[in-house]
Amino acid sequence: MTARKEEVGPSGLASALVEAGALQSDWLPSYRAVPRDMFVPARVWPGIPAGTEQSHVVDRDTDPDAWLKAVYSDIPLTTQWDDGQHTADEIGTMPTSSNSRPLMVFSMLADLDVRDGQRALEIGTGTGWNAGLLSHRLGGENVVSVEFDAEVAKGASENLRNAGLSPLVIVGDGRLGYAGGAPYDRVIATCSIGEVPRAWIEQTVTGGVILAPWAALYGGEAIVRLTVDGETASGPFTRPSAFMRLRQHRADFPAHDTYLKGVAWPADGIRSTSALSPASVRDWVVQFAIGLQVPGAFWSVERSDEENPEAYTLWTYDADSDSWASADYEPGADSFEVVQSGPRKLWDETEAAYRWWVGQGRPDFERFGLTVSSEGERAWLDSPGNLVPLRSA
After folding, report:
1. For 256-282, how does the pLDDT look when each residue is reduced to its tens digit (9 = 90+)?
2. What's the domain range around 352?
3. What ranges make up the beta strands (E) of 152-203?
4. What's the whole-model pTM score?
5. The domain spanning residue 33 has which CATH number?
């Protein structure tokens, strides 16, 4: 290992992760034995520590110092755009595979709380780094990783082989888990889900743990840590997150014109005003709290006032294309114009959800939890018996 690599390399990142409380002592040997640089391709688009933005491409062949600095920084690295259809240096439309932020990787591994000899199932192999860490800790014979994209799986398998690690990498639909390796003591997803697949619960032993980034359609996301008890799994959210969606859980949103049905705004909408600013419902935890209560709703922002670029319209839609709401944001305003159409009064639901969140003391992610049973999923606050209310079914 060169002096330059030591300067910006694994030691500095390890120190930062230990100081942040993410990298625990029991994972240090695996961190050292499974270096991140062995699991990062030559071309990556570095991200930012918090958020989903990417910077321009960094190429190891043309700028090895910048590449190494990116690899040993606490940032996510996008490794694929648009399911591999975009290969240019420019940023693509949608990031679809990555090497996750190290702080999140080791925070989740700490949440997973593995024990020697346990079997683990990973959903979303990506570059293979997380599977490699698990394999070093548990033994490759005890780790199965499922990746939907065959090319991504091929690259991960090569990385793992070059690192001397041999988990079982399966190309398949992550929702189905992998029954051939079940039962598992631990299941970890490195992609976001909108609901917990039944197969994961069925393939996990009673007392086992399922750890996954979970998000309602509306937005916000957090890591949920579920303990399996027969056909039921329940547990708290542990921390906020922002992962790429499991491909089969990606939303296919109807187009804006589908809701207005070819008629100019406000169409058949009913006008009103609200004291709640649209800006108040856009924070990550607020989106999360609203999404738990307002199922099947999503939102977008439209900016059209060139003279007032900070002004915008917050549009809220239901996934069934029957209802919509618009709320106009003006900086400094005390009242905001709202228009609602359809059987669901989506802004009323949003406002009620926000007021509930405020009334509960503005809870952060860690106060929420989730129970998954044969009857579906229900979120709760503080304890499983205190269900989060649903504003519309």
Report:
1. 888 988 888 898 999 999 999 999 999
2. 256-359
3. 168-171, 184-189
4. 0.94
5. 3.40.50.150
